[in-house]
TrEMBL record:
Name of the protein in question: Thiolase family protein
Thiolase C-terminal domain location: 234-374
Record organism: Baekduia soli
Pfam family, one: Thiolase_C_1
Single annotated GO MF: acyltransferase activity, transferring groups other than amino-acyl groups
Length: 374
């Protein structure tokens, strides 16, 4: 399937604090932008893949979205793998297209945790909540502590990830947070859950985003101006809660990446730019290791000295990621991957030919990988 499906267009709302906006209204706006970018009429769409709104689950929300769009899709519905959902839905759409189940698919996500409710992020996780394991950051803090204990990873190394993402976000006029971060500022910030400081943690943002997926052949027929080929995709899932995992420093991201890289016919050395899920800085650290960009335990040294900035060894999250562009779960990384391959990013990597995008959900429970390129 390498290159048989393409991302034909994308659209998104503003990012940040959007009072009065519902997930449904933001979905419609993002879809309209994606169809306009692809220069495809709405009537061509026959599949609608929807990530459910994390902060407020709604029954049959996929059908509600289709109704609001005025569509009668052959395939439609809501999927949930947390932050891994968006890439997974893109892969499901590509496979459905390949097997003749649909021709043109919309893949959408929207939520309003900033101005609506953020209860999904604040709730206790299992019985351990009574001992203080409360809210999403606690699980990631435990993983970070273990990586530090096993490999000597430092606070400054986690900070290097935050500094790079914030630098790229500051150059993005659409970013929720356009404020660069120095290492001194990072180190002076308060703990959220030790060892995670404020700037190790992603934003909480309202917003919506969508992409249009179709076959390369169909894109040529419809005259899509700048389709970006999907070269590979993969998934991996960890089915242990954090306290029960046999190891905290290895994830199924390795399986996801290996599957996608094999489909694309590439290796880590072939990647020009990466968009890696950065809900918390240790997520990036483990993904870099599990993807094979460096050896296990060497993620900390890999990210030092500007390695993740444009001009470094592996430019990362070039529109700011979840730490700066928007805290929305994952689609912004896909969209920035499309921009990089098109050559239209605000922080463009020269001659970017291969972009790897990583999504992750839960507390490193689910993982999905997308390889884009020419």
């Amino acid at each position: 399937m390498r290159g048989k499906a393409v991302i034909a267009g994308f659209g998104h709302t503003a990012h940040g604090k959007l009072p009065g906006r519902t997930p449904l209204s933001m979905t419609v706006e993002a879809v309209a932008g994606a169809l306009a970018d692809a220069q495809v009429e709405k009537d061509a769409v026959d599949a609608v893949f929807v990530k459910y709104p994390t902060s407020g689950f709604q029954t049959m929300f996929g059908q509600t979205v289709a109704e609001a769009l005025g569509l009668q899709p052959r395939i439609g519905g809501v999927w949930d793998q947390g932050g891994a959902t968006n890439i997974s839905m893109i892969s499901f759409a590509a496979m459905a297209i390949e097997h003749g189940q649909c021709e043109v698919a919309l893949v959408t996500t929207a939520d309003n945790p900033r101005t609506g409710t953020r209860q999904a992020y604040e709730r206790g996780w299992g019985d351990d909540a009574v001992y203080g394991w409360f809210g999403t950051p606690a699980g990631y803090a435990m993983i970070a502590q273990r990586h530090m204990a096993e490999y000597g990873t430092t606070h400054e190394q986690l900070g290097a990830i935050a500094v790079a993402c914030r630098k790229h976000g500051a150059a993005n006029p659409a970013a929720h947070l356009r404020k660069p971060l120095t290492m001194d500022e990072y180190m002076d910030a308060a703990w959220v859950v030790e060892p995670l400081r404020r700037d190790d943690c992603c934003l909480i943002s309202d917003g919506g985003a969508a992409v249009v997926v179709m076959s390369a052949e169909r894109a040529a027929q419809l005259g899509v101006p700048d389709p970006v080929p999907i070269l590979g995709f993969g998934q991996g899932q960890t089915s242990y809660e954090v306290p029960l995992r046999p190891t905290l420093t290895e994830t199924q991201a390795a399986i996801s990446a290996r599957t996608a890289f094999a489909m694309a016919g590439i290796g880590p050395a072939d990647v020009d730019v990466a968009q890696i899920y950065d809900c918390f800085t240790p997520t990036v650290l483990l993904a870099l290791e599990d993807y094979g960009f460096c050896r296990k335990g060497q993620g900390g040294s890999f990210v030092e000295d500007g390695a993740l900035e444009v001009g470094g060894a592996l430019p990362l999250n070039t529109s700011g990621g979840l730490l700066s562009e928007t805290g929305m779960p994952g689609m912004q990384l896909v969209i920035e991957g499309v921009r990089q391959i098109r050559g239209t990013s605000t922080t463009q990597v020269p001659d970017a030919g291969i972009c790897v995008v990583a999504n992750q959900g839960g507390i490193m429970h689910t993982h999905s990988t997308l390889v884009l390129g020419r």
